[in-house]
Design goal:
Helix content is about 30%, strand content about 20%. It has ten helices and 14 strands. It has a seven-stranded mixed sheet with strand order 2-3-1-4-7-6-5. Helix 2 packs across helix 7, helix 3 runs parallel beside helix 4 and helix 5 packs across helix 6.
């Protein structure tokens, strides 16, 4: 049976998530931070295991207008919760409300919870309380302009948690954003890849996963794997298919460098955990010391932004030196994610293209300096 599903995405990345879903064979509809699609139980498994840039995959239980707590209660109770929640389901309710009459989120959460309990008690002929000792079915009530959207989170822990990060640095780049940066660059595995400010190695690892077509969710588990109405065979099938689609023999040239030797140790540890210890090279080095014998390479990086006095000047100097180094390699394309508004001046070149993105809550630009292919 087809379910209405949605993949959530960071602002500005909805288009990439929609493209990923289309590649998986789904038709999509995009809204702010959301990409809607339809599919069966296998679609739930596929989206969770394959989506690189989405934050979560949710199942839409229902939508309705509500301006009063009564309308919220009755609208929630009218939905067929017993179709999704077994009698022992553990169903915490979280919520958010934007530009709506019902603005108290804790009240909305407790009313939704109460309405679902009433519905389940009636459906399962229970007089007493529900013990909630079973699998977790996280429910979210989201109210936008007096319209209620009730969803169940199929992912559990956010999709950015691939499972390979043993340790991280001070300002780690989310895996989902790192994958988006690689996808925007249109990098292909036949081209060398370099991150000169690699930190804990996330960009290099995500590039390697894309290069070998390895499903990002292959080695982790999801809440929906424990749901009573999705058979374990569904997940096994999708994982088996992902395994056969992976190209473990695809050769890659990926280099990550960082001035901090501790970050190189962390990056090596993460690459080992991800299965790329022999594929990615990490070394301690200043960005300005970069040299290469390759043509048509791609640099993708998230250089430090700098907050304290002295830091910004130091970063500007480093980026200026790096810009000079890269001017010697005109066939290389350089992509830098930064909150520095004067980055083009500092780097010494006007960007071919800029794209507004958010790194967590920091508004940044993705500066794209396209090389001349030889």
């Amino acid at each position: 049976m087809p379910y209405k599903l949605l993949a959530t995405a960071a602002m500005g990345l909805e288009g990439i998530v929609a493209d990923e879903l289309k590649d998986l064979g789904f038709e999509t509809q995009t809204d702010n931070g959301k990409v809607f699609f339809e599919g069966d139980e296998e679609a739930i498994a596929k989206a969770n295991i394959w989506l690189r840039v989405a934050d979560r995959v949710k199942l839409v239980v229902g939508e309705f207008p509500a301006k009063t707590f009564d309308q919220l209660f009755e609208g929630t109770k009218a939905l067929p919760w017993e179709k999704y929640l077994p009698v022992d389901a553990n169903f915490p309710v979280s919520g958010k409300s934007v530009k709506s009459t019902l603005y108290s989120v804790p009240d909305c959460q407790s009313i939704v919870k109460k309405a679902i309990v009433e519905r389940l008690k009636s459906a399962y002929k229970r007089m007493s309380y529900l013990d909630e000792s079973g699998a977790r079915y996280k429910i979210e009530v989201s109210i936008l302009k007096d319209r209620v959207l009730l969803t169940m989170d199929t992912s559990g822990v956010g999709l950015h948690k691939r499972g390979y990060r043993t340790t991280q640095g001070d300002a780690p780049l989310k895996e989902t954003l790192a994958a988006a940066l690689v996808k925007i660059s249109k990098w292909s595995p036949s081209r060398p890849f370099v991150d000169p400010f690699c930190g804990s190695g996330t960009l290099c690892i995500e590039a390697a996963m894309i290069g070998q077509n390895i499903a990002p969710g292959y080695n982790r588990e999801f809440d929906a794997e424990h749901w009573s109405w999705i058979k374990p065979a569904v997940w096994e099938k999708v994982r088996d298919e992902a395994d056969t689609q992976a190209d473990y023999d695809q050769e890659l040239t990926i280099l990550g460098t960082d001035i901090d030797h501790r970050m190189i140790e962390i990056a090596n540890s993460n690459a080992l955990e991800a299965g790329f210890a022999d594929i990615i090279t990490f070394k301690q080095m200043q960005a300005a010391d970069f040299t290469t014998r390759y043509d048509n390479g791609v640099v993708i990086s998230n250089p430090p932004y700098g907050e304290r006095i002295g830091e910004v000047e130091e970063i500007e100097k480093t980026l200026s030196q790096f810009g000079y180094v890269m001017s010697k390699y005109p066939s290389w394309s350089v992509y830098l994610l930064s909150s520095m508004e004067n980055l083009e001046t500092v780097y010494g070149k006007k960007a071919t293209k800029k794209r507004k993105l958010f790194n967590g809550f920091i508004r940044t630009d993705y500066y794209q300096f396209w090389g001349q292919r030889v």
